[in-house]
Every structure is written in C-alpha cells, then in structure tokens.
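Structure tokens please, single chain.
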Amino acid sequence: FPSHDKLVTSELFVSPDNLAFFNAPLYSLQVLSFDLSGQYLDMTDNIVITSPISDYTLSLDGINYYNSLTINLTSMTLPPTTISVQFSPQSAGDLSTTITIVGGGDSINLPVTGTGEAAILIAIPPTLPAFNSTPVGTFSASQPFVVSGSYLQNSPGVITVTSPSSDSQVSMDNINWGGTTTFPYPRPSLFSTTVYARFSPQSGGSKSGNITVSGGGGSGTVAVSGTAAAASVSATALTSFGDLGLTVPFTNSQNYSAPQTTTVTGTGLDGTALIITGTTSFQISLNGAIVTGK
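Here you go.
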C-alpha cells in the first residue's frame, strides 16, 4: 500500500520581521516588541534568542531584560509569544544589528536598527560683545545669550551655568545674580532658554574668560570680556597761604587764614564714601565750617 505520510519542516516565524528604533540619547530607554511562533518544532531543541550587543536586551515579561533568553518547548507548536526588545544606546552612532533565534529545529534572524545620539548643548552667541568699561566693584549692563539642546541624557535634569570668575555673574531672570545659576530640562530636547551675563570687575584691567554651560551629558561655552576702570581721584591745586604770622596754639578766629577752595573729581569710583584728611596745620571743610579731623 502507498504511504500518505508527508515530510514536514520545523518552522519559526517572527512578526514583524524587523524592529526600527528612533534615534535616542545615550543611556535612554525605548521598547519595541515582536511575536515569535512556530510549528512542527523539535521539542528536544529549546529556542534561544540572543542579542549580540549590549545596546539591545530581551525580555519575556517586559520587566526583566537579558542579552539572551531561552524558551523551553513543551509542544511541537509554539503559539505567538511576545518578546520585548529594549534599546539603550551605550555609544553614539549606528547600532544596527541582528537578533538571532535558534531552536526547535530551525533558525531565524530579526534585524534591528537604532542610532545612539551624543548630547548636544549649544549657547548662542558663542562670544558676547565686550562689556563697556566698568568701575571696579560695580556692575555693567547685562547681555543675554540663549541655550538650547538635543538628545540630553537622564531627563528630566538640570543645566548648570557657571561664570569664569568673580569678575562676571549670571542670572536666569536678570534680577537675581551669582557666580552660578541652574534651570531644568524636562525632556531630551531643550528649547531656547535665555540666560543673562554681566561684568562685575573686582580689580582694574582687562578681564576675559568663558561662561560654561553643562548638563545632560553636553556642554558649551560663551566667551566674555571687559575692561575694569581703575578708580582715580584728583583735586585742583591751592595757592600758597603765605606767612600769616599766626601764633600757636590758635586762640581765636583771627588765627585762621582766609579759606581757599579746591574741587575734587573722580572716575571709576565704586560708590563708597571718599575720605579727605586734613592735618594739624591745614584744616578742611565741606560746608564752610572748620573740620579738624577727616
């Protein structure tokens, strides 16, 4: 009698037949999944699913992820089984690879694509115009710059802005100033955020440096410069008082010479009081009354 038996072949199936992840910040997480099924499987050959690189890990429960999974066969038929694939780029660049699935008497490959993106943090303009000459101990008018970013890591997070020295300050609101300020980034993309800088020279001369902007794995700089105006005070000269023939000690108003007036001017002053000091032989006044000390 003729045989009616048919030769059957073990077969594994995946759906979909590839996974494409979005470009992602380093160390971020994305999850896609595929269904694995099979028929006429060799029950003595358990199925092993392997990711060749650590940027992709695998899970049967969507919670615990591994580089390799094993499915123990209890039947010649494997009903659709969901496998989760987690993409967490560990380096920048194209990280496309192939997940291999072997077992049950068959093998199949699942192409996966993904790109790791390095964090980008930009400050514009990269160089602020030089601050106007500013007296020591005072503050210049402020200048703004704008910070933006993409593919920032570990969102939500904080961006830190730091001035190069005590000769400059930074602010988020143009009111509260200091050597450092911070602001949050809630997501990997940072929209344009305005930061202010001002010149606060602590000593005379030219000053320059870089304001640094850092956070989310990225960094940027803004060059600042300015000249501090050194304080200068001068007074108009007086003529000689001559030989007055006065006696010492002075006993009455007749022992004083006629007063002379001098004009005091200054530049680059810090707003504190000027101190003008007389001597035992020369006395000074701001309002016509004799001042015996300062």
